[in-house]
Amino acid sequence: RRRHHKMEADDHKLVETRKKVIVFLSIVFYFAGVYSIYEYPGFAHKTYISENALQPTLAKPVYGRNQAKFAVKSSNSYIDFQNSIAEYGSNWSQETADWLQRNLEELGAVVYQVPYSYENNTFYIVVGTINSRKGDGTESLLLTTRYDRFGGKNSETNSIGFSFSMVKFFRERDWLAKDIQFVYTPSSSGLYGMNYWLNQYFSLLEKDHILFPRPAILGSLSFDINPSENIDEVIIKTHGENGLLPNLDLVNIVHKIGKNEKVNHITFDKVIPDFVRNFIDPKIRVLLDFMTNQALSIPTGDHGLLTKYHVDSITLSTSPSSGKKVSFIKFGRLVEGLVRSLNNLIERFHQSFYYYLIPSNTTYVSIGDYMITFGLVIFSVLCIPLYTLMMRPSNEIAYSFMIILPFHIVGSIVYFLPRFVGSDMLPIFWISTYAFSTVAVVSLKKFIVSLYPKETIQAGLYTLKGLSYLVPLAFLMKCSVDNFSFAILTAILIVPSYIGVGHPSKSNTFVFIQNIMLLLLNPLTLIAIYAVVKMYFLDTNIHYEGILEIVNLMVKNYNNYSVAIYPFFTLVYLPFNLLHFVISQNITADK
130, 138, 198: which is closest to 164 by C-alpha? Predict the structure, then answer.
């Protein structure tokens, strides 16, 4: 008997030692993964152009002073026209579209309009095509911009004026081998106008009903010009739906042409607020902006809608300047060089990377490098359920899965709510379901835990905690290829938050503290915190009903742009959070 007790004691010590080793390894792997992101700029690769046919600096750009003057003249005409319209009413889009069509036809473009409905109003898309002199009309390039009520001052260049100068300029070029389609969408409907046109353009089911020509689009460029006389910097926007990116060659030729034309103020889209940016090491600011934009998964411009159609596209945006950092002549030459490079393509982009991160204008981090980071962070958590599956008795594992399943059924119900509830009532139903499920779990967690045999409750709760990570890990691993930034940033935030909470305890005080922390980590609380931060720090125009707006926005972004935040919150994070309420149990009475 003594020998038997000694063997049990030795086994218990061995188990405890293994637990300590796993915890130690988890901590080491986690911090190694997080730190590796900080070192990305140090081991990033130098950018290069893989596609030899692009030849970005082979020809000397000729966009000059005359074209820039025409851009200002066209901008003034657009401003005068907008001022002549009596009011911003239902006919505004049609009147503006008619004006655009007349002017584009005068410049030699073949023009058509596409009407669509948005929020009970009818808007118009205008498409002007310049037919190439050397092509056969089967291939094209796409240049897009938006038209708005406001066009700037009389001495400034706006998107419409600049695009008109480009229409006239390319109409006179004899080297064009591909048609160029200029697409104008109303800014008042946001991304919806371009999304509607692309759906029609690439639709096969409605092919017989579409009257306009549809040559294959090999590349695309969008303009987003803030009306100004000069430019402070040129901003490249790359991110598309669900964080998808254009071919890296398309980004690299912008920098190559910019360097050749001495456009030294080219940067990437910034999304991190300045009050946060000031605390970030300058060497990783560009990288974190790039990763945050990708993690948000929302297209940063019209270009982002083309990624799902396998068309490589970027947006070139400008910020106005009081000085003369970049003139519109240089910006025009930058666009000319980019279009000329795309015109040289004999096949679609395919040689360079589609999965990458950018820490600076001249470097990139490839998928082979950054997936090591994801592996380290994920392995820091993966070893916990693996150890549970290998070391715990099968009956504990079976009981744990039996408890986990209903929680994910609740998550699935919340996920499918938009299919059965109208958009007006969806936020109320969604929030009510979240709140009710949280209250129900807190109230019934004693009953839920009683499903375990009484003598194994404490061990069973630890088994439950280990297995609760399986679904979040599977979801993040699935997301890691298409949207690495969302997967890694979510993992980095969740891992330390839940390692510290969700433990059975004999202390009522400790259990109470854990429940408070879990309430703070609850999806509804996180949405409320985001609404407050957005109201006071990011967007002062948001109203007090911001939580309802955010819920509707999550569903809308998921339906329109496949943003992973909504399925993550419903199918993964809600069950995970509720399970930890059960795990943080007072086990005094069961001992």
Answer: 130
Which stretch of DSSP H or E encloses residue 133? none
pLDDT tens for residues 269-291?
888 887 788 888 889 999 999 99
Give the C-alpha separation, 456 to 450, whole Å. 10
Q: Residue 500 to residues 23, 394, 476: CA-CA distances in angstroms?
A: 12, 26, 20
Report how far residue 78's alpha carbon sits from residue 144's, in angstroms, rounded to the nearest whole number: 17
pTM: 0.86
Whether pLDDT at 324 is above 70: no
What band does 123 get if pLDDT is binned at 50, 70 and 90?
A: very high
Q: Which position has the higher pLDDT, 21 or 152?
A: 21
- Out of 143-152, 366-375, 448-457, which region has the weakest mean confidence (pLDDT)? 448-457
DSSP per-residue string spanning 308-323: GGT--EEEEEEEE-SS
Type of residue at 443: S
State the residue for tokens 């591909």.
178
Residues in Cβ contact with 390 at an 8 Å cutoff, skipping those fewer than 6 apart:
none
Alpha helices in 202-344 (DSSP H): 248-260, 274-277, 285-296, 328-343
Beta bridge partners of 337: none
Determine the distance from the C-alpha atom of residue 288 to the mean position of all C-alpha atoms in its chain, rounded to a whole number. 13
